[in-house]
Each structure stands twice: as structure tokens, then as C-alpha cells.
Amino acid sequence: MSVRDRLAEISEIGRDNVRGGYSRHLLEPAEVALRSWFRSSAEALGLSVEVDGNGNLWAWWGESRQGAVATGSHLDSVPGGGAFDGPLGVVSALEAVAILKADGWCPTRPIAVCAFAEEEGSRFGMPCLGSRLMVGEIAPEDALARVDRSGVTLEEAWRQAGLGVSTIGPDPDRLAGIDMFLELHVEQGLDLEDRGLPLAVGSAIMAHGRWRLSIVGEGNHAGTTPMQGRRDPVVALSSAALAVREIALERPAARGTIGRISVTPNGTNVIASRVDAWLDIRAHTDSEVRVQLDTTVALIQKRVAAEGCALEVHEESFSPLVLFDEPLTARIAGLLGGVPAIPTGAGHDAGVLSAYVPSAMIFVRNPTGVSHAPEEAAREEDCEVGAQGLAAVLRDLTGG
Ligand code: GLV
Ligand code: MN
Ligand code: MN
Ligand code: MN
């Protein structure tokens, strides 16, 4: 097979006919279909597949569970996302195993292909849910109580999927059995396209976090309520969104985004009573994110108050700056022919794991530079180069 063939196998799963692209959310039918695809693809390669206590998928080459080189990514997407963010890393890992098996390679340590649950946090709001649970960064009870957009708790979704809820939580034995983690990922920018190169390794992930802003005003009739004296949280949100941009623009390399909004009650002829908006902030360092957040919230607070509304801010997640393991990254860059190391503003399971095991990333050129949108792209030949490169790296890391 090839990366192209493997991606073709899942190309109809989770297509979003309304938004375009793909919507593949944890334990919803499309994501469940991807889980079965993963199982059959891995079993066809002779790997033995298991679901861990946190809903992450593992496919093992070798009997031992110690000293493993793990590689993979995630199968879920953002709403209306692209075809590559996540699946490319899983597909490439499977293809790399296929390449090594076809060559008759005998690894001297186990290789695990993995797919982490809910990397995007699109259903239950917590990015890198599965990897964070595994390493113990989220309390099981907090995870189980999380609620999706339809009011279904993670616990209910878990039970409906036939997964045991008592197994959710830290998995130190599994973590201790992994010596290294590699995540191949589509690049989420134009750096490689600009450089004319198919691959890079990752040097760093910007610090980032998510905060829920709840703006409460006063619901009323759109026709009978005078314009003066309204307490309209949608108007307050509009000036809040401008504040996010103003502050981010003042700070070099900072990002500030409101990409998700929920309006209550969301009626055309109704002045809303409440708006919830999710604020995403990213910067080079943890403290820069904190300062940007504080400055942004202070300005939003003023503007919300000026509209007669009240503001509440709730931290949903925080992801500190990640610097990938330098020796491993340098070794991989060398094996790939001396490719550059580039930083990214996107979060990844490799970022979570990097605090516990040496971790590294390989990026594959994206000709549009777009990600988290249907226009996300990767050329077929670059994807094959990526899988060949990953196979070469696995061979090196699992040699005698
Ligand atoms: C996930 O891809 C993120 O960076 O938000
Ligand atoms: Mn993503
Ligand atoms: Mn991803
Ligand atoms: Mn991500």
C-alpha cells in the first residue's frame, strides 16, 4: 500500500457536508468508524491492537511492552477540519511499519503505533484529552464530568461506547514502557513550501491555552426594547473580539482568537441574555501567554461593563511551551537528510508526552499552509517521503 491508499480508505469517513471538510469527534459515529479502520489496518500488518483505559488506541509490533518506540497522532478533527491533521501521522506510522515489514526488518525493541483520543478537544473541550489523561495531567473525575455541545457527559459517551469508566486516569506503567515518542504531522503553515523542502522536524510548540468567557446581559424583545439601555451580550462580545485582536497585535508573535461562540437563546428576534465565547491565546513563553491573557481580559472587562453586562472567565486548558528533545530531534533531522527544525503554534500530543519521554515531531509540507479548515493539504509524493522517512527513523531507533 501507500500513504495515499491508506488515506483513501478513510476519505469518506466523517465528511461534513454542511461545513465542508471533516468532522470526526470523539466516540461519534465517524470517529468510531476510524477506530475500527485503525484496528483492521493494524491487524492486517500483524500488530496486536488494544484500547487503553483512556480510549487511546495502541497497535504493537513485538511482545514486550518495555522500551518501546511509539509513533502516531490522532484521528479526531476540529469541526469542518482537513483530511491530514491527525490522520496523516497515524497513516504514516502504519505505512512505516508496512515498509519495515516488507523489508524483513526485525526491531530489537517494540514499536507501538498509537492514536490518541480527542486531541483537538472538539467534543469535550480539553485538547489532548487522551494523552493528558494517560500522563495524569487531568483528574479522571474532571474528565468524566465534561459535557459536549448536546449536554452529553464524557462519562455517558464512554459508557455508550462500551468503554470502562473505572480505567480512566493515569497510566504510569504504559508511560514507563515508552522510551520515545514520534509524531509525524502535516505542517500548519507555509514554512516548508517557502523553503522548497518536503520535511522538517519540530523544535518547539508555542505556549497556549483556552479560556471560556461568559458574558451575561439581559434577554428581551428585539422589536419592543429601545436601543438605549440595552444590555446586549452580543454587542459586548463584538467589542471583546476586537480587544483580543488589538492586544495580540501589540505583542510580537502573539496570537489571540475567538473561534467558538454560543449565544443564548440564539433567536433572530431576541436580544440575547448570554454569550459564551472560547478565547485561544498563544505566545512564545508561558509568562507571555499569562500577560497577554491578563491584558486582554482587563480590556474585555471594561468593554463588557460599558455594555452593562457581566463577565466570567474560566480557564479550560493551559499548555506550556514545549521544547522537543534536542538529541532525538537532531538525530532524526540527520536521518532525514539534514532537514531544518521549525517551531509551531499548534498543540500536539507529542507536546504533552515531551514532559515525560523524549519526543520529537516530523512535519510534512503543506502547499496551502492552511490547517483546521477543508483547504488543508499535503502532496501525495511528500506524504510518501514522510512515511519513508519515518520508516528510516524507526529502523535507526529500533536497530541493535
Ligand atoms: C490543535 O491542533 C491546536 O493547536 O489547537
Ligand atoms: Mn489540530
Ligand atoms: Mn493534530
Ligand atoms: Mn493539535
From TrEMBL:
Residues binding Zn(2+) 2, per UniProt: 85, 120, 372
Xref: Pfam families: Peptidase_M20
Family, per entry: Belongs to the peptidase M20 family.
Residues binding Zn(2+) 1: 74, 85, 185
Coiled coil: none
Positions annotated to bind allantoate: 210, 269, 282
Cofactor note: Binds 2 Zn(2+) ions per subunit.
Record keywords: Hydrolase, Metal-binding, Zinc
Keyword Metal-binding: yes
UniProt keyword Hydrolase present: yes
Known cofactor(s): Zn(2+)
The protein's name: N-carbamoyl-L-amino-acid hydrolase
Source species: Micromonospora olivasterospora
A molecular-function term among this protein's GO annotations: hydrolase activity, acting on carbon-nitrogen (but not peptide) bonds, in linear amidines
Lineage top rank: taxon: Bacteria
Extent of the signal sequence: none
